[in-house]
Amino acid sequence: MSNTPERPSRFPLPLGKLVKGQAAGSTGGAAREVLMPQRHLREAAADAARQSAPRGLGLDSDMVRRRMVQRLQQEGLSDERVLQALITVPRHEFVDSALAIQAYEDTSLPIGHGQTISKPSVVGRMIAMLFGGATARQQGRLGRVLEIGTGCGYQAAVLAELSRQVVSIERLRPLHDKARLNLAKMRSPSQIRLIYGDGRLGHSQAAPFDSIIAAAGGEDLPPAWLAQLAPGGRLIAPMVSPGGRGQILVVIDHLVESGVSRFVRTEHEAVLFVPLKSGVM
Ligand code: SAH
After folding, report:
1. 113 alpha carbon to ligand 1 midpoint, in Å?
2. Cis ω for the linkage preceding 208 (within 30 of 0)
3. 234 in the same domain as 166
4. Whole-prediction pTM value?
5. Is the same domain home to 130 and 243?
6. Active site residue 118
7. Residues with CB under 6 A from ligand 1
8. Residue that terminates a domain, selected from 56, 72, 93
9. Full residue range of the structural domain in which residue 50 is found
């Protein structure tokens, strides 16, 4: 609606104004008075109501998403590449339609089977931290990425905007299938491989990875993740904090100096993720 040719002077609009216009002005000809029989009016209203929910969200989802990303930026997320990826990926397409209206609030939402899609601010923060790894800093991209916990596929789609390849593992079959459906609708710029399996084992066939990101928190770091982290690579994962109370974000850098590998661990802020479990279901 904002870019219809007959109203060029009204673009760009202040955000609030556009929302109001869309909510109220479904016909675009509000001043015209047309006499219609009651029955036709009722039918027209019913038609409009049927169409307006999905179409309304489709029309303004870009704008609502931009506003959410603006808020994340105001709250300190400063990496332009990550902000752009969050603007590009339509989060509402990854949740049930009944929750789509909440997709652009900074909250986690249920995706079924006791799991949740992570908060956009946390997705943004973790991916921005991945860019601090040696290889990612050098290349300005995340390279080959391993994600543990595909869930609904949202974070995989964001990662795909910023990397060469994403391999994402999910242990719950219905969610693996759901992510496949969700991602089939997207036009991701890089390849996303979805694996049904136990992410604690990583995916040795596609290793090594420049970036590894876990969306579920465990008590220990599975040895396979370290084994599959490329030299210069960075891993980020929520982990049960050393004191056993709550979770924190842990970063591991795989550094190589004079041909010798070492893993450097740093601990960051408190977070709240679903538990990392073993085996598949
Ligand atoms: N990145 C997801 C977040 C999903 S929540 C998204 O954008 O929607 C975390 C997911 O990790 C859950 O789906 C859970 O089933 C999965 N998970 C937990 N332990 C796992 C494991 N060992 N291997 C693979 N997936 C696991």
Report:
1. 11
2. yes
3. yes
4. 0.82
5. yes
6. yes
7. 111, 115-118, 148-149, 151-152, 154-155, 169-172, 175, 198-200, 215-216, 274, 276-278
8. 56
9. 1-56
